[in-house]
Each structure stands twice: as structure tokens, then as C-alpha cells.
Amino acid sequence: MQNTANAAGTDGPELVDTAPLIEDLHPALAKLREAGPVHRIAGTDGRPAWLVTRYEDVRRLFADPRLALDKRHAGPGNFSGFSLPPALDANLLNMDPPDHTRVRRLVVKAFTPGRVEKMREPVRRIADELLDAIEPDGRADLLAAYAGQLPIIVICDLLGVPQRDRRDFRAWSDALITPDPARPGAAKEAVGSMLRFYTELIAKKRAEPADDLLSDLIRVRDDEAGDGGDGDGGGRLSEDELTSLAFLILLAGYENTVHLIANSVLTLLDHPTVLQELREDPSGLAAAFDELARYEGPATLGIRRFPLEDIEIGGATIPAGETVLLSAASAHRDPAHFKDPDEFNPHLGRSGHLALGHGIHYCLGAPLARMEMETALAALLRRFPGLRLDVPRERLRWRPTIRARGLISLPVAW
């Protein structure tokens, strides 16, 4: 893989070209991983970053307290990222302890395995309703009509988002996660729309509380602030943190699960023997989840991190404040940890994937994502025994970003 000129004008090694990571992710990551454990690249915001590629390093650094998530630790000229207003930026992906511990504790009970399991039957009904709608057509873009619909319905039901307010959410999410170069202002517009949406939704829930997660969080916020809601009276949740929590739960609960489901369907279509086994015995989906998440999970990179001090990674000294990107996708194909890592085989019982993170920032919604994917795949395989791709495999396209691994569309027939 060729190096490019260091266009950012910073000291240090020249930047590795990231275009191959978009064009052919796994072979490109394999070349980087073989060449060395850490590389200087243009990050997701175009600024220099350090990409860590090998499993042992990635896993260890996910849990290393010397790497902060709070953007205030980014050095001058380093990370820029999304330009979010404070009311959306005070979220768990930009927090370190003790704030992270305090805020996470308030919402973690909503995603316990026991509570999530109670949602399985309602999610099964949603899956069947979505499949009822497309079954007569005999073909569909499964990403748009099924994988992209089920998670937004589930997470909106959990939070208490009215049906009429859900229609624009996917467009806003896509504008943030996969910016369109032809529409440079789209991401800023999406942020403004999201801020108005959450502010108005929280005001409505305050006026008319319901039996949903957002109403519960509002009650915690207002009952414990002790000062009428401005967050200065020793309360555990500020107004910005409340709004940011709603933003993160909806965005993360939608975006990652959409592509986890769609990528898993494609993987099974590419491996018809495993697909047939799971169709005959859907109970195997619980065990298959980990291998599906490892083999083609949506988390190409972990959330960017910033060293609190100069640290050594793979023989390279990374100065405090620079941006570190941990590649879960590369770690998952590391032959030093996984036997035959480019082979998809749920029978090998390979453990230790990092698709849901590791350490204190392990995915809050992991039990929900697991249950949704198992339920979505079980319903799909049961209803459509003749499921197949509706276009040649080589015509499928991945989204043009190194941030996450997701298809643009998934045309299928049955």
C-alpha cells in the first residue's frame, strides 16, 4: 500500500493512503497489519491519526485508561470530528470517568439481558409485519425495507418516539455517518434538525410523561437536579446530558444494528451451508451471532481516542493529544489470534471479538443488538426459504467510509 504525501503538514511519518480501505477493506487491512502494528493515516475527519491494526494491541487499548474519549484532550491541530452543539455532544462517546460512570449508570438498567428478553416477542411481531409487507412482491432491497426499518421501530418504541416523528431519522443518520461530498452542508443541516427534534420531544415528554425510557430519564433528571432543572444543584444528569443520551441511544441503536443485520444476511447468503443449518435449527443463531459480528461486523473502527500522555504502541511513540483509531475489523482478521480468520465458521467457537467494544465503553445496547439480530434473521429465514441475492455479488457496494462497514443496498429475491 503506497504512502501519500503528508498533506496535513505535521511532523512524523507520511500518511498511509486510506482509499484501499474503502475499495477493498479486508485485503487492505491485511497488508497494513502485516506491515506493522500501527500506521499514520488520514483519519475520519481528514486529519492525521494513528491506526492500530493487531488484535492484542487493539483489545488492550480499548481498556487502557491512558486513552481518553473526551475531545478536550485532543491536541491543537488534531481531531475535529463532527461539529455538534453542547446539547448533543455531552454523550457517552465523549466522556471519561467519573462522568461516564455516572451517566452510564442511569441508563444501563434499560438494556439488561432480562429486560431485553421481555422485548423479544414484540420485536418478533415487528419483524413479521415488515416481512408481511414485502412478501407479495417477491423481491426487495432488504436494507431499506427490513434491516433499516426494524431497528428504528424498536429503538423508537423503547424511547417513546411517536410514529409521525420517525420518517426523517434515517436521512439525518446517513448525513452524519456517511457525509455526501456533493452536499457539504447536509451534515450541519442534519445536526440542526436533530437538535430541534430532541429538544421538542423532551419538552413533550415532560408535559405528558409516558411508560418509556425517555420519560424515565426525564424523571431522573428533574427529580434529582434539585434546582428546577438547570443542573447546578448537585443533580446527576444535566439537561445537555439528557438530550445527548436520547441522541446517542437513538443514533447508535439504529445505525449499528441496521448494518449488523444486513451484513449478517449477506454473509449467510455467501455461505449457503451455514444458512441452511440455521434455517433448520434457528436456535443456532445465538451461537452464530459472535462469528457473524467478528467476520463482517459494522464496527470498522472504535471511537477515536486521545493519549493523556506520550505512549508507545507497537514500537511507535504517540504524543499526548494525537488521535488513535483502533481497528476492530483488522483485529478480527488477525491470524495471530484467530485461526483461519478469513473463513466464516460459527462451529469453531471463536471468542473474543471486539465488535461491541471492550472495557468500560463496552456497548451499552449489546443485549438489545444481539436479540434484534437473532430475531430478525430467524424470521427472515423462516419466511423466505428461497432467499437469494437479486443482483450479481460483485455489484454490491459498501458505503464509502472507513468509519463503519455497511452496504448501500441489499437487493434480494425469494
Automatic annotation (TrEMBL):
The lineage of its organism: Bacteria, Bacillati, Actinomycetota, Actinomycetes, Kitasatosporales. Gene3D superfamilies: Cytochrome P450. It comes from Streptomyces endocoffeicus. Belongs to the cytochrome P450 family. Transmembrane segments: none annotated. This is Cytochrome P450. It holds the Pfam family p450. PROSITE patterns: EF_HAND_1 (PS00018). CDD domains: CYP107-like (cd11029).
